[in-house]
Specification:
Blueprint: E1 3-9, H1 15-24, E2 28-30, H2 38-45, E3 51-55, H3 66-76, E4 80-86, H4 89-99, H5 112-122, H6 124-129, E5 132-135, H7 141-152, E6 161-168, E7 179-182, H8 193-196, H9 203-210, H10 215-235, E8 240-247, H11 253-267, E9 271-276
Parallel strand pairs: 1-3, 1-4, 2-3, 4-5, 6-8, 6-9, 7-8
Helix pairs in contact: 1-7, 4-5, 10-11
């Protein structure tokens, strides 16, 4: 089966690293392609390779209409996935300061901060049409590889995939989430000495949370909301959503709920993935 990935996102968010990882996954990668020739290049290369990845970013915006280029490719190749890498602004500033590299828009701005704001505004429409958004703020290359592999090589192309992420609010909300739910209003196993070192996948923590009034009902209500949204997303051609559920540290309650939600959607016939972003930190 043919695969085409258009890789884009903010400068400093990890596109070069991601492109290298895609090559490791067997993709033929073309970097920094002007939008106006994306369709022509794809048409030439796709017949000869099984997997093609094209990197476009703000550097090529002056050469054509990016949104039109993306739509032209998706109309011709419906298996195309638009992957957008995002990162928190403060992390982007730190990365540019660390590498001492100039931002591509530095000549149009008076500071790195202003250049990043300008790029975010310029990329807004591309962000909105992305099929997959990956927040690299807290990902090392190994974690990025795992996430790319999980999302890019998703099976069941005609079905619908639900990606579930657990996280800790004190580490920030995942920027790639379509829906964010809060589990902090339930009792925290952290304050029970024998449960503190465990996480929401351990049987003792699961048993503790199962016996709390409202926990099972909350899982069911979240599932109902998401199924309603999925039914609408399907009519728009979407094939996946990312759902995040958080607690204070991302170790106990959020992990439990993420596992339960993933299990519920899997039992309902959906393709599911689950990621515990902050379980080692909480």
């Amino acid at each position: 089966m043919k695969e085409l990935v258009i890789l884009t996102g903010y400068s400093g968010a990890g596109k070069s690293t991601a492109a290298g990882l895609l090559e490791d996954l067997g993709f033929f990668c073309i970097d920094n392609l002007p939008p106006e020739v994306v369709y022509q290049v794809a048409s030439i290369v796709i017949p000869s390779v099984e997997k093609l990845a094209i990197v476009i970013d703000v550097r090529g915006f002056m050469f054509g209409n990016v949104i039109k280029a993306i739509r032209d490719v998706k109309d011709r190749y419906p298996f195309t996935k638009i992957v957008f890498l995002t990162t928190k602004k403060e992390i982007l500033i730190q990365r540019f300061a660390h590498t001492r590299r100039s931002h591509p828009l530095s000549k149009q701005a008076t500071s790195i901060s202003e250049a990043i704001d300008l790029e975010i505004e310029m990329m807004k429409d591309v962000f909105d049409v992305a099929d997959i958004v990956i927040d690299t703020s807290q990902l090392n290359p190994h974690q990025l590889r795992e996430k790319l592999t999980m999302l890019i090589e998703s099976k069941q192309p005609t079905g619908f995939t639900v990606h579930v992420i657990s996280f800790g609010f004190k580490y920030g909300i995942p920027l790639d989430a379509d829906f964010v739910f809060d589990a902090r209003f339930f009792p925290n196993p952290f304050y029970i000495q024998e449960l503190r070192s465990k996480d929401g996948r351990d049987e003792e923590v699961k048993e503790f949370l199962r016996n709390i009034d409202g926990v099972k009902e909350y899982v069911e209500k979240i599932k109902n909301i998401l199924e309603f949204a999925i039914s609408r997303y399907r009519t728009e051609g979407r094939k996946e959503i990312t759902v995040a559920i958080g607690c204070t540290g991302g170790r106990h309650r959020s992990v439990y709920f993420a596992e339960e939600l993933s299990k519920a959607f899997e039992n309902a016939g959906y393709e599911t993935t689950v990621e515990h972003r902050d379980v080692a930190l909480g």
